[in-house]
Design brief:
Blueprint lengths: L1 H10 L4 H8 L12 H12 L17 H7 L3
């Protein structure tokens, strides 16, 4: 996956949002909380400058189904 991030960084001029879209890094269950900093570091190394940070989308924090089910009884 590191190679895919480096190739995407070279192709998209280090634009993190494009790298995220092309590689799908940061779009999993954790929404980039685990891999986000690694993707940013690889892209920064490939492009040679600071690029900013990945943005996350809702849900910002996974919520167990049991918690959501509890709202049905309220």
């Amino acid at each position: 996956m590191a190679g895919a991030v480096r190739r995407a960084a070279a192709k998209w001029d280090g634009e993190l949002h494009f790298i995220k879209g092309v590689t799908r890094c940061g779009m999993g269950y954790c929404q980039g909380r685990i891999c986000g900093s690694i993707v940013e570091m690889l892209a920064r190394q490939s492009f040679g400058m600071a690029l900013g940070a990945l943005t996350v989308r809702a849900p910002l924090k996974p919520v167990p189904v049991e918690v959501l089910a509890g709202f049905a009884n309220d």
